[in-house]
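writing this on my phone so excuse typos. first protein, seq and then structure
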Amino acid sequence: MSSITDFDSLRRAMAENGEQPEGPARNARAEQLLAEAEKLGIPLAVIEALGHQLKVYNYSSEKDKMFVPFARLLRMWDERPEDFDEYEVHSLHWVFKWMSSGMLDQPHIPLASIEKWLGEMEHRYRLAGHSERAVRSAEFSVAAHLGDVPRAERAYAAWLAADRDSMADCHACELHEQGWWQAEQGHDAKALALWAPVLGGEFTCAHEPHAVLASSLAPLLRLGRTDEARAHHLRGFRLVRGMESMRGAYADHVEFCALSGNEARGLELLAERPTYFTDTGHPRSRLDFLSVVALLMRRLEETGLGDRQVPGPVGRTWTARELGAHARVEALALAGRFDERNGTSHVSERARARMAQPQLVERLPLGVRTAHPVAARPAPAPAAPAVAPGQEPDLAALLAEARRMSDTLQPNAMEAWAAVSRAAADAELDVRDRAEIADHEAMGRGPEGAELFERAADLYEEAGDLGEALGARTRAAYVRALTGRVDEALAAVAGPYDQVLALYAEDATGVRQTASVLMGRARVLMRRVLDADETADGAPDETVLAAAESAVRELLALVGGHAGDDVRIASRYAEGQAMLAELAVRRGDLEKAVELFGRASAAFVEAGLPWFAVEYEARLAGLSHHLGDISGAERALRAALEHGGAHLEAVGRAQLHLQLAEVLGGRGLSVEAAEHALESAHWADEAGEGPTFGAWARHQLGGFLLRQGRFAEAAEVLESALPDLNEETHGDGVVVQTQWWLGDCLSELGDHRAAAERRLQAAEIARHWPEQRDHATLAHLAAESLGAAGLSADADRAYARAGELWRSLGDVHGLVRSLRARAWLALRAQDGAGAARELMAQAVRECASALDGDGHDEGARERLAAELGHTHRQFGDLLARSTSEDADDDAIRTALEDALTQVTEAITVFASLGDAALDSRTGAELAAGWLETDLGHPTRATARARTVLAMYDGAPTDDETAQSRRAEAEQMLQVVEEQGAG
């Protein structure tokens, strides 16, 4: 920290401190600088130091400290106004507004003092000749805070009617306040219309669009504009996250989480800012924060998580119930202090209303990673049989409902049978009922159900139903096959197969029971195909395939004419088609497999069983994609999502949405692709697959948002994906791409230091790849970011490394561009003109040498020539800027002549490329013309200007480059004419 020895060093120190993050450290430094300013004995130094102190206090959590330095400034103004320069006079009057709002925010300051101050502000503004716009805005704030709607409306109208002048708040801040009032009065759509110019980037300032993005969240949710609300949260939270003074806006983001079903995200926000619970310098924003904490904790209690540990004030652990009670008590006590000061109940009423808000959206997926999911939403339970209020359904009703659901193959049939099993625990049942209960319980056990299937078979036999008994024994055999005991399963199914065919031939059992056995046998044989496929190097043995196909076709021959209204038989037919499709895949006949999977899916849908079609539509999508039929893949995936509906498990839904996102993204449909990637991330989180599918979906979502230019949202999503992405699970290419995209986002957002860090991290991984082009590109991009961040030495080293990589790859364009970039960096350095010239000269040599070489096709030669032309042009620009301000006339003239030589070379190169380089040539012609003007060659300058005009003669009016160049050429002619007349 440099010592303060004079006024200039004080100003530099204040400027440096102003760039530091908001908070107590910056405030403490401002206090030190005021003490240093007082030692200089210069009144203006003290005035500026007081103004600096005021500013850092205002943009911090210690806003209550503003009043002392302002009172001192005002006293100095009243006693010696001549000590203030024009800027400090303006600043003094400007911060009157901060004092007005600052007093409102401090409940210990009496209302009478605030009203008196308002009058003082009006008087001083009038004396200074300022409009009353800022005064009426301040009066509006007072009235709105008091809940005095008539006075607020009068002040609001007067505010808008008054002329804007230098004391008016910036457009962005004014629109924020105006929109806030409309939302407060229940006019959400009007509020958003007022905020549109700020949200669109037309008006910005130090705290905007930060505050407008936060204020817009609840109105957007209330209007059902959830996509915009999500975008505003992701974009806006990045802006306020590091700004200590924006606790009120931060509270809006916590509120959004509570209202949109994102309680876990809300808890993460609380954990990031523990001091917000206790900072007392700005009571009104603390009231806002505590109110939304109470709201969030209420939501947790309502979801049964009142005993969950949550982040709260430091010094102890908190449950949601405890923190909710604490926050509510603290908030209402604080609101009571405001109301006592104001003589109203308005602040307490607003706080209670905010804490009592209903949830507006059950769950709004955000796309970002949540470290600790609050609770998965339970799947809808199957409908229970209708019973009278207060009564439990009887066993007969439960059995009837379970049989209905089984006969129609409903998705929740197993849950219905589980309910039967629970109800039948102590009941007397006939043997057929016990057989069905055992059969369905075995189905629920999967590979562990073999013995229970055998028990069910014995009970069916005891009940006299031999066909169902054989079906159960076949199911027992199949679950053994699922555990790898295929040979044992085939032996076990042989007997039931022969017996059921005999029974069917004698009309002793029906098609359904026979089909059950044939399907079980086919499934076992298909299992043998799959096992052979997993263990063999190539395709399974043809005898294995033929045996399975024979079994499937036997099944299809049986059920082909018997489906009718029997969905069980129809489902056998559909599954048989899918088995044939799988066999076609094993034989390499993918086109046939696509046809058969399509048949299977259509058969399930036609039978009223669309949820069974999902698996095969997913297979159809994968095969279609492999065959290059992207439209077919898209249709299949959309059908799978539609047909699965609410019956899809979360993990399956995540996979389907992710596949569709990738297909749509490949077609360039990034908007819809982003929607499906978002859904995939959401359902992956619900399934507990956030670190796997969820991370991949977030990676994809970030890329799609980046394509749309939604850089802040993309950055938030990509940053949340990175902790879960790893080389083992997702591959190092995905990690590199995510870092790469994130670097691009941060670069667009102006955070060049962070962009450089991400690009360097990606480059470090890519450094180990056999192919080094990505490594070179990332090193080059990192160098660009380092240069933009002002880290010139680091940037030069990165460009040098990139240049070595481009050279090793034989990429002259990359090498030349790295040399040019290093030249411009060198020019910034003290005494760096010589190094800059040499680097640019080297770029020219590299390009010219490559152009003289052999082995280039015509297109490559034209690209190299264009690169050479641009290098000469940049060399000329660099030389023109290479002389220092105190250089003598001869040195300046020599530099300009050298620059003209290079630009003339550029013109020659571009001219050789014809119309393809027209715009590049005319740009160089104009640059040369200005150099001729500076060198005192008016005739040559005129000739160059007229050349440009002639080259664009008759150019269309919508050709912006042509019109711009013509305008510049006309300007050049005018300058030359004026110089001649002078």
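second protein below, same order as before
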Amino acid sequence: MGDITTTTTVSTGDRWGVPVVGLVGEVDMVCEVPARAALVEQLDRRPAGLVLDLTAVDFFGSTGIRLLVEACGRAERHGTAIAVATSRRAVLRTLEMTLVDELVDVHPTVPDALEALRAAGVPFPRQPAACR
């Protein structure tokens, strides 16, 4: 049997001053360290809100759940609101089965997640005319 290699990309950026951490591919043990580092780095800046972009995730298992729950705990301690962006069945089903969907707001797209943060009163450092 050959080695199975998964490719996961971790990116950070911002939309209107709100940090966005994006994961692409499979969220598993291979990407755990860089994904956690990106989330911790952004949350330790203590932003008012953060979006976790999972719109291009193909697999989201126990590692993904652990990362998200840890991020939610850190965010709560820092007073940061988190919104997750995804419409991927692989992610949604795992969030539903573990009831983590009750811990965090989930929206189908990054613009929807940003709009939800804004509607919840999260201040945007750079105000967009609209989040779309």
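The CA atoms of residues 56 and 125 lie 27 Å apart. thats all i got for now
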